[in-house]
Design a protein that fits this description.
391 residues; alpha/beta; Rossmann fold; 2 domains; 17 helices; 13 strands; globular
Length: 391
């Protein structure tokens, strides 16, 4: 009889504490809760703040040179980087063969997905990306070659990959930890509307769209809005400087504050009346919008990607066309001048979060997918599997 502990390997492409990193932490926490006796080994590409957050749940944390497909590094990866790919795939294959199940928390970890194609019995790939152009074609091919069982974080992500139906696949929304009681105080127009934007500073996220939208508003409306843009650019200080210069050039320095990324954004949500996600390109889901609803802060989002799956337009928040600064500005003007029209949104958003994006429901679904892999032949099945995966 096999008494060894189940070995679960969890692979992630980052080492910070942005949204994708926090989603990974929550997935590992769920696995520790549902499979308490398992050995859970985490593999990361570098040391960073995510390590401390994972330590309560991981049996071990390994820092290894993962072969990660990033757009900004493509020229190097497709030239000198190719020489390191065979070694990276071999290293990943050794880990896969030592594990009962391998959880790859993104489709850009190329070495592990290629290695999964050489051992198709035990890998789960959790896809959180919607790419475009040649990168999208490359990622689709990589996912198909992997043979992994697929988890998509939204219907929009599933549609973007368009993997044929016989392939085992499911949609599981990212579970977001309950931040505690939602805000109860409603915005009544007696002070400036507090608008929050969280996320990496990039063209994709649309900080520039928000700045342009504010600059288009009449002075009488713009003066009734206070904005926090929270985040940093990824290895791109010039982009941060360009955003600061655009804010100053638009005459918005007195109303828009640029603040650095912090691991726990709870204080910002406590400050905010609404949260804005003005993405230019598809978000695979929209964690910030979900967190906003969990805090009782209605989201104003682009109608693109997975964001419309998060926000019920006119009920829990608002949607506007992506990249449309005029439409975003008009929505902000309506929100400022007619607060009674959305007084019910915070409570409705909190209910939607609890129903669709709470950790319990998402954790059950994720554990069930692990159970399906672990129930295969030749694996060490934990004693808790029958209850953990079917609750």
């Amino acid at each position: 009889m096999n008494h060894r502990a189940t070995r679960i390997t969890c692979v992630h492409q980052g080492c910070e504490l942005y949204g994708s990193d926090r989603s990974f932490i929550e997935s590992v926490r769920v696995l520790r809760e549902r499979f308490p006796e398992a050995d859970i080994d985490v593999v990361l590409p570098g040391d960073g703040p995510i390590v401390g957050a994972l330590e309560p749940y991981a049996s071990s944390i390994a820092i290894e040179p993962l072969w990660i497909l990033r757009r900004r590094h493509l020229p190097r990866l497709m030239t000198l980087g190719l020489a390191t790919l065979p070694l990276a795939v071999a290293r990943a294959l050794r880990r896969i063969r030592r594990s009962d199940v391998v959880y790859v928390n993104t489709c850009v970890v190329t070495d592990y997905l290629l290695a999964a194609g050489l051992d198709r019995r035990r890998t789960l790939a959790h896809l959180h990306e919607i790419a475009e152009g040649p990168v999208a074609l490359g990622l689709r091919l990589l996912v198909r070659l992997s043979g992994a069982r697929l988890i998509f974080n939204s219907r929009a992500t599933q549609a973007a990959f368009a993997i044929p139906a016989p392939r085992p696949q499911t949609v599981i929304y990212n579970g977001i930890a309950d931040p505690g009681p939602a805000k109860t105080a409603a915005y009544d127009g007696s002070r400036p509307l507090r608008v929050l934007m969280l996320g990496r500073i990039s063209r994709i996220k649309g900080q520039d769209v928000l700045v342009e939208a504010l600059s288009r508003l009449p002075d009488a409306v713009r003066s009734r809005i206070a904005v926090r843009i929270v985040g940093n650019a990824f290895e791109d200080e010039a982009r941060e400087a360009a955003l600061a210069a655009a804010i100053e050039a638009a005459g918005l320095s007195g109303q828009v504050r640029l603040l650095p990324f912090i691991p726990d954004p709870s204080a910002h949500f406590a400050w905010a009346d609404i949260v804005v996600v003005p993405s230019r390109l598809p978000e695979s889901l929209g964690r910030v919008a979900i967190e906003g609803m969990a805090h009782g802060v209605p989201p104003l989002v682009s109608d693109i990607g997975g964001l419309p799956e998060v926000v019920a337009d006119g009920e829990t928040g608002w949607t506007v066309p992506p990249g449309d600064a005029a439409a975003l500005g008009e929505a902000l003007a309506r929100i400022v001048t007619a607060p009674d029209a959305w007084a019910s949104f915070p409570a409705a958003g909190r209910r939607r979060y609890e129903r669709l994006f709470g950790q319990e429901a998402c954790g059950d679904a994720l554990a069930a997918e692990f159970g399906r892999v672990l129930s295969g032949p030749g694996t060490a099945v934990p004693a808790t599997l029958s209850t953990a995966a079917t609750r």
